[in-house]
Amino acid sequence: MRCTYDDLVQEASTVSVDGWDFSWLDGRASEERPSWGYARLLAGRMAGARAALDIQTGGGEILAGLPTLPPVTVATESWPPNLQLAASRLRPRGAWVVADDEAPRLPFGDGVFDLVSSRHPVATWWAEIARVLRPGGSYFSQQVGPWSVAELTDHFLGPHDGSGRDPERAREAAESAGLEVVDLRHERLRMEFHDIGAVIYFLRKVIWIVPGFSVERHQDKLRALHERIEAEGPFVAHSSRFLIEARRPGGQAA
């Protein structure tokens, strides 16, 4: 039996969106993954590090899935529900989970980490990252790139400028903070949304795609998109991702 529009809206509006586990979307939406394999590459770097910091860790999903963590591993997060999830996953692995603000300063001393990582940070605090890295230490991050899921943003808000997350701007910011960029890659990846519930769940979870999104505020656009999916099939969009690795000069790399 096919779900009605109201059924889909009700389900997607009430399910929890805590953490960065997207398994609720299995069978309802899909997204190509970047060719570089962030978790695999991060695992190799973590295995060789002595002290590591993961910024904006979400629910700790990425770190918890790594086979080896450094002797000193710290994760930061600002949203209370995610803090609880991260603590439940990471403390049994011997990692510390620290509450921080959504803006600098990082609550750590100078030069204490030989690896800093972050997957999909809302903002990158380049000067702070450079400060807490040891000489020879590295920042390793997968980030949201320009025009990511622009098709959804345009549907709900109209044409917009999505160029603010340009990888070359990240390079310039890293270099301005005194870091040397040793790797920078960018890919655009196909996404498909198979029902309007998947769209609602995604927009509730990834809040920067349509700032201020709510079912009530955007009900006309939601119903129009539902009818489009019903008539034409999955709504296709494209995510944008870039990988950046930047090293603090001096010393020996981790």
TrEMBL record:
Which residues are in the Methyltransferase type domain? 53-139
What InterPro entries does its record include?
23S_rRNA_MeTrnsfrase_RlmA, Methyltransf_11, SAM-dependent_MTases_sf
- Keyword Methyltransferase assigned to the entry: answer is yes
Q: Does the keyword Chloroplast apply?
A: no
A molecular function annotated in GO for this UniProt entry is:
S-adenosylmethionine-dependent methyltransferase activity
> Cross-referenced Pfam families, in alphabetical order?
Methyltransf_11
Q: Which domain of life is it from?
A: Bacteria
Q: What's one GO BP annotation on this UniProt entry?
A: methylation
Q: Which UniProt keywords apply?
A: Methyltransferase, Transferase
- Please identify the protein, giving its name as recorded: Methyltransferase family protein
| The organism of origin for this protein | Nonomuraea polychroma
